[in-house]
Design a protein that fits this description.
Structural class of chain A: alpha/beta
Order of helices and strands of chain A: HHEHEHEHHEEEHEHEHHEEHH
Distance between the termini of chain B: 57 Å
CATH superfamily of chain A: Thiamin diphosphate (ThDP)-binding fold, Pyr/PP domains
Strand content of chain A: 15-25%
CATH superfamily of the largest domain in chain B: Thiamin diphosphate (ThDP)-binding fold, Pyr/PP domains
Structural class of chain B: alpha/beta
Number of domains of chain A: 1
Number of domains of chain B: 2
Largest sheet of chain A: 8 strands, mixed
Largest sheet of chain B: 7 strands, mixed
Helix content of chain A: 25-40%
Radius of gyration of chain A: 19 Å
Helix content of chain B: 40-55%
Distance between the termini of chain A: 27 Å
Oligomer: heterodimer
Number of strands of chain A: 10
CATH architecture of the largest domain in chain B: 3-Layer(aba) Sandwich
Radius of gyration of chain B: 21 Å
CATH class of the largest domain in chain B: Alpha Beta
Number of helices of chain B: 12
CATH architecture of chain A: 3-Layer(aba) Sandwich
Chain lengths: 311, 395
């Protein structure tokens, strides 16, 4: 059935308003979209790593989640999900859940809880082959604690632990290619997406990930107006710029087969993405122009590599 | 009808687990507890249990997976030792605060450093404030029996706290002793089914677990948890009572050995109690009124009962098989001394730190401790309150 945003929006909301996420935060849109990607008749258990989303969506005694939800710690969303999934299997086997009672096990964490501190737990759960889907809302830094750099922070971004200064042009290292690392685990479905257009790309990948058996992974670029330093109403423009510059290409890997899901008609220069954000403002200062060149070279190289994989 | 067997502590625990047939077992190997999941893996391989057995990539994850499973509505267990327990540290606190009654078998072993695989209590003593109930055992029989009682204590509606079943690494975990096992069906009937009221996989009523609790709510949650630990005392006694009725063996917070008229007493835990009991017998033969208290339940700490049991003594030695680095005594001593503080007349009390990293503890050493207590009884002079036993002098 063809994707239709209007119809999707008519579905019952499963992530309610009233949460404490910042104005313009993309994580709330990711959560709503993730829950819309479920078939309405299926229940879910959401396993959330500590982070912005957790402290904002489940402040006792209120929760934004219509489905069952568990948060235990920062680095163990995948291990917690493994336990929930094991319990689900055994309850099905022992008849405590009927054939008609179907749950989908979803894990969600930020880049800190996924690329960094939660990486081991994620890798273990992927290797063991639990039937669950991990959503990473990658906002490129530790936003909950005040924009400290993570391994998802792109090179040259000014973060509070890699600030730009008289002797610094921001973070020295490039972003870890987590999507590629997950692919290397042999997961049956891995995708990279963000929030563009009518959210078709995000929705289709989320749905496919949730309804592919085994450990699946969706890496969602999730801009943060506070940390990236741009006006809160520019979210969609930022996402679009990330895609059109190929800073964040949209692709999926199905049983090891790479497929681009969007190819920019004309690849925009990387500065179109960087210029919109305060975290890169130092790159545009006199004497720092080289950073934009280096950033461009890196994006070009990664894009070419991806195109080869997609052929 | 009991079954006579010869088993190590690890196999005794694995046997209890097989009989209980938990829903989820998440494991990560660590010496000396690893035999437990190994035995269990064979039960899985032979179709003797209906458990989801998950080999995870760390102890942090094994306990995290247990939390997920327990919250989802099923019985979850794991086993660990030493550094593995330390690595679980963060999740231990989460387990207790989420009120998830995971049962954790711990083969007690020294913490690094230097790295050492032998027995002392530094691992579980470091977790004494985690909110876990802690049961200790002198031998494989007690370990087995504690395990049979564990789920009922932990899962009791007025408790709902995770629980550690502790055994002495190698001394109990690996030594093979005679044991009386119970019939599978009798064990299943005694332990019962786990049917929590609220759980994640309840179709008609979803559950949210693990909120952010701001200052306006945090303290109430902690007080409720503290109250649950207090409630655990009665539940431990009630379950022990039922255990005695069912299987005939008797358990309390601690065992009092020849304490009737004891003037000199030793407070001790685990397998060392066997050695110390032999010493008490020798001293009694010599006419010295020696007695011993072997603590079974360290959390909740039975302070009131312990202080009552010690109140008539003249001198007490608390035996700490872990170093607390407080510079004034180990954890068992501070708790025991604290419990006795408000007695109108209280015994003189000393702390002996011994047996670290598997250092042997002998009847002769126990006797030296009692003779020191006898001196204290005679002179009223305590001498150094905190000292070590069995270490070589510095070169």
């Amino acid at each position: 059935m063809a994707y239709n945003l209007k119809e999707e929006m008519n579905k019952k909301e499963r992530f309610y308003p009233g949460h404490r996420l910042c104005a313009g935060c993309a994580a709330g849109i990711v959560c709503r979209g993730m829950m819309r990607a479920l078939n309405p008749e299926d229940k879910a258990v959401i396993c959330n790593a500590t982070g912005c989303l957790e402290v904002s969506s489940f402040q006792y005694p209120f929760t934004s989640w219509d489905d069952s939800y568990i948060h235990t710690a920062f680095e163990n969303a995948s291990a917690t999900a493994s336990g929930v999934e094991a319990a689900y299997r055994v309850m099905k086997r022992k008849g405590r859940l009927s054939d008609r009672e179907n749950f989908k096990i979803l894990a969600i964490g930020g880049d800190g809880g996924t690329y960094d501190i939660g990486f081991q737990s994620l890798s273990g759960a992927l290797e063991r082959g639990h039937d669950f889907t991990y959503f990473c809302y990658d906002n490129n830094a530790y936003m909950n604690t005040g924009t400290q750099r993570s391994s998802a922070t792109p090179r040259f971004a000014s973060a509070t632990t890699t600030p730009a200064g008289l002797e610094s042009v921001g973070k020295k290292q490039a972003q870890k290619d987590l999507t590629g690392i997950v692919v290397a685990h042999g997961s049956p479905y891995v995708a990279q997406t963000t929030l563009i257009g009518n959210l078709k790309d995000f929705h289709e990948k989320a749905h496919r990930a949730i309804y592919t058996k085994g450990p699946t992974f969706v890496n969602v670029l999730t801009p943060c107006p506070r940390g990236w330093q741009y006006p809160a109403d520019e979210l969609i423009d930022i996402c679009k710029a990330a895609v059109e510059t190929c800073v964040w290409p949209l692709y999926e890997v199905v049983n090891g087969e790479y497929r681009l899901t969007y190819e920019p008609r004309k690849k925009l220069p990387v500065e179109e993405f960087m210029r919109k954000q305060g975290r890169f403002s130092h790159c545009f200062k006199s004497g720092n122009e080289w950073t934009i060149e280096v950033a461009q070279e890196y994006v070009d190289k990664k894009w070419e590599e991806l195109l080869k994989l997609c052929k | 009808m009991s079954i006579r067997e010869r088993l190590s502590g690890n196999e005794a625990i694995a046997t209890a687990m097989r009989q209980i047939d938990p829903d989820v077992f998440a494991m990560f190997p660590i010496t000396p507890s690893t035999e437990i999941p190994q035995y269990f893996a064979q039960y899985v391989a032979d179709g003797r249990v209906n458990t989801e057995f998950i080999c995870v990539e760390s102890e942090h994850s094994s306990l995290s997976a247990c939390l997920g499973a327990e919250a989802a509505g099923v019985r979850a267990v794991t086993a660990t030792s030493s550094a593995g327990l330390s690595y679980m540290n963060e999740v231990l606190y989460v387990a207790a605060s989420l009120r998830l009654p995971v049962v954790l078998a711990v083969a007690n072993r020294a913490l690094t450093g230097p790295i050492n695989i032998n027995h002392d209590y530094s691992d579980s003593m470091a977790e004494r404030d985690s909110g876990f109930i802690q049961l200790y055992a002198e031998n494989n029989q007690e370990v087995y029996d504690n395990y049979l009682m564990a789920h009922r204590i932990a899962e009791h509606p007025s408790v709902r706290l995770p629980l550690m079943v502790c055994e002495d690494g190698f001394i109990t975990s690996h030594a093979i002793e005679n044991i009386e096992l119970e019939e599978d069906a009798a064990v299943k009937a005694f332990v019962g089914e786990y049917n929590p009221e609220h759980y994640l996989l309840k179709t008609e009523n979803p559950l949210a677990v693990g909120p952010y609790g701001v200052s306006a709510y945090y303290m109430e949650a902690r007080v409720a948890q503290a109250q649950a630990m207090k409630n655990a005392k009665q539940v431990i006694l009630d379950v022990a009572e039922d255990f005695k009725r069912t299987f005939g063996r008797s358990y309390g917070f601690f065992e009092e050995y020849r304490m009737e008229d004891a003037e000199l007493a030793m407070v001790i835990m685990g397998s060392s109690a066997g050695t110390a009991k032999a010493c008490v017998d020798e001293l009694r033969n010599e006419g010295i009124k020696a007695g011993l208290i072997k603590l079974r339940v360290f959390r909740p700490f039975p302070g009131e009962e312990l202080c009552k049991a010690l109140s008539a003594c003249k001198a007490v030695a608390v035996m700490d098989k872990s170093e607390g680095f407080s510079s004034c005594g180990g954890p068992l001593f501070s708790e025991t001394a604290g419990a006795c503080f408000n007695l109108d007349t209280r015994p003189k009390m000393i702390d002996i730190v011994y047996g670290l990293g598997g250092r042997d503890f002998t009847v002769a050493q126990a006797k030296r401790v009692f003779l020191r207590l006898d001196e204290i009884r005679k002179t009223g002079e305590t001498g150094p309150v905190y000292s070590w036993l069995g270490e070589r002098s510095a070169v």
